[in-house]
Design brief:
2 domains, Rossmann fold, 11 helices, alpha/beta, 12 strands
């Protein structure tokens, strides 16, 4: 956990995010750019990665990915569900394909993922209407997929909606699982103390798993502990205050519903998980609820 330095007082008049004290929960390296932008705009940042991304390491998993990559010329469509899937997937592709297979199209969930894919010489399709699997499935190119082969780049586990829907439409879908997710371990009281010391008033939770991990860490279950046990009175009061006063930014309606189910009162949707969408939402947060 770390805090980005605030800007010099002489520059405060030009800083639109003064008063924003933001908890970023993305994997560490993925939070660096947005943390710098928030600090430049006058805000402060506390970094608390609630998810870490590791490349697959087990021999069987590696061989499974390699087999799919070597057969990439047999696929019609490659779908990448995240920036991690795009970055790690392209690393794999570059190992075995100096040039991309002819006729392969790429589909991206979200504009940040599409931006990574567009560095390559292939057609890249991404929904302009939203950042979910549902938005991707609405694209014209994924409607008539009878008989087509689809390589779905993702992490191990996750939603089955994309694959299930495309299979229902007649496609053959193979997973290319290039990474695994890991939830870091923190001490709950240390996290609460640091958030209170730094007067954190905004939390950016950019995925369903991050919301669930954050709620599990803090024991936010409508004033109950993670296992449904009542916490001590002082700790429970602090947790209830956090639920009621912390402003939570999420990327989509689905994640918004999960955050509200965890008990957060002030939840707002950014319309995406990319840096620009989060910064735009931060700029529109006014007034910010204070955390006692």
């Amino acid at each position: 956990m770390s805090t980005a330095a605030t800007q010099p007082a002489s520059l405060e008049g030009a800083k639109p995010l003064l008063g924003c004290r933001v908890l970023l929960t993305r994997p560490g390296t993925q939070a660096e750019k947005i943390a710098a932008r928030i600090a430049e705009a006058g805000g402060t940042v506390m970094s608390l990665p609630m998810l870490e991304i590791d490349p697959v390491l087990l021999k069987d998993d590696i061989e499974r990915v390699k087999t799919r990559i070597l057969a990439l010329d047999q696929y019609d469509i490659a779908i990448f569900i995240s920036t991690n899937a795009a970055t790690l997937g392209l690393e794999w592709i570059h190992q075995y394909w100096p040039q991309l297979p002819v006729g392969l199209s790429a589909y991206a969930v979200g504009p940040s993922t599409a931006e990574i894919l567009r560095r390559e010489a292939w057609p890249v399709f991404c929904s302009d209407g939203g950042v979910t699997s549902e938005h991707l499935l609405a694209l014209a190119g994924l409607q008539n997929v009878e008989g087509k082969r689809v390589a779905l780049f993702r992490g191990q586990g996750g939603r089955e909606l994309l694959a299930d829907t495309l299979r229902e439409r007649g496609a053959r879908v193979d997973y290319v699982e290039v990474y695994q997710r890991r939830v870091p371990i923190y001490d709950r009281q240390e996290v609460l103390n640091e958030m209170r010391t730094k007067n954190i008033n905004v939390a950016v939770l950019t995925s369903l798993q991050i919301v669930e991990s954050f709620a599990r860490l803090l024991g936010l279950r409508d004033g109950r502990g993670t296992q449904g046990e009542q916490t001590e009175d002082k700790a429970r009061t602090a947790l209830l205050s956090l639920q009621q006063h912390l402003c939570v930014i999420v990327p989509s309606e689905r994640v918004l519903e999960a955050a509200r189910a965890a008990g957060f009162v002030h939840v707002t949707e950014a319309g995406g998980a990319d840096d620009d969408a989060i910064i735009a939402r931060l700029l529109h947060l006014s007034p910010l609820p204070e955390t006692p």
